[in-house]
């Protein structure tokens, strides 16, 4: 057990290479192992999110804290089974609900932290004249819109950097919860530690995944059913490699004590 703990600590502390191209190709190979299942589940994901989102107030909360996190993890769980060469059943896509409590807490806390990080930007950006301009446009839809109030100084947009950082470094929280059985806060800290080390390359990686997603939407909006699970598989491939997830199956048992600063 001690050897495993030391190995996990070493994985986090060493500057492991971020093998950008390998993750793209590996993720696509994983997707090809169950194209039909991924496409159907993505459709279920989108339809379920839309239907639940129609419920006033409760729907958006349920989507943000329960449905989206749990179904997102479903992609990752299946990706790992396929990556390990195991047989997959469609029900495995819904196994993310096994972790719904910690996932919901992670989503909630991350949202609160992001909102708190936005406060300085709101204070610098907000101008009562913006509301007056909006009200005048709404009340006089047929009239030419008035001149828009002066924008805030350019430097104020630098206040968005903390939000940008949070959005990147907490990106693997759900994976740490699902694969290493961490509670939400240790999982958030584990993700923060690891992705801070690879911040810029991971940011570029996410930009590439975003381009792939955008390109899939352009394909008559149908390609999104394939594009979304593809980028999920690619993100899983990066996580699995950097955390040596499949090289040491039992290494996650004591990970919590070694990933948190």
The profile of the biggest β sheet is: none
Mean pLDDT: 84
How many strand elements?
A: 0
Give the number of domains. Answer: 1
Q: How far do the termini sit from each other?
A: 21 Å
Low-confidence stretches: 1-5, 249-261
Given the C-alpha coordinates, what overall shape results? globular
Give the structural class. mainly alpha
**What's the multimeric state?**
single chain
Based on CA atoms alone, the radius of gyration comes out at 21 Å
Q: Share of helix among residues?
A: 55-70%
Into which percentage range does the β-strand content fall?
under 5%
Number of helices in the DSSP assignment: 12
H-E string? HHHHHHHHHHHH
Name a few traits of the molecule.
12 helices, disordered C terminus, 261 residues, globular, single chain, mainly alpha
Describe this structure in words.
This protein is mostly helical and 261 residues long. The protein has 12 helices and no strands. Helix 3 runs antiparallel to helix 4. The longest helix has 26 residues, at 58-83. The radius of gyration is 21 Å and the shape is globular.
Task: Summarize the structure in short.
With 261 residues, this protein is mainly α.
């Amino acid at each position: 057990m001690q050897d495993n703990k030391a190995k996990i600590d070493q994985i986090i502390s060493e500057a492991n290479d971020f093998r950008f191209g390998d993750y793209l190709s590996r993720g696509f190979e994983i997707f090809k192992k169950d194209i039909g299942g991924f496409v159907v589940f993505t459709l279920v994901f989108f339809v379920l999110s839309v239907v639940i989102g129609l419920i006033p107030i409760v729907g958006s909360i349920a989507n943000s804290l329960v449905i989206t996190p749990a179904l997102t993890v479903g992609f990752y769980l299946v990706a790992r089974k396929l990556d390990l060469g195991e047989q997959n059943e469609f029900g495995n896509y819904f196994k993310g609900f096994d972790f719904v409590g910690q996932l919901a807490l992670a989503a909630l806390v991350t949202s609160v932290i992001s909102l708190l990080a936005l406060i300085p930007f709101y204070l610098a950006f907000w101008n009562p004249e913006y509301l007056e301009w909006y009200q005048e446009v709404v009340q006089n839809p047929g009239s030419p819109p008035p001149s828009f109030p002066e924008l805030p100084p350019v430097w104020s947009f630098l206040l968005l950097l903390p939000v940008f950082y949070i959005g990147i470094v907490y990106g693997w929280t759900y994976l740490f919860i699902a694969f290493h059985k961490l509670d939400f806060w240790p999982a958030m800290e584990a993700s923060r530690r690891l992705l801070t080390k690879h911040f810029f390359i991971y940011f570029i990686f996410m930009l590439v995944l975003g381009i792939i997603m955008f390109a899939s939407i352009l394909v008559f909006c149908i390609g999104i059913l394939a594009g979304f699970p593809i980028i999920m598989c690619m993100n899983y491939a990066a996580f699995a490699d950097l955390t040596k997830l499949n090289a040491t199956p039992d290494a996650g048992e004591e990970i919590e004590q070694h990933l948190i600063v």
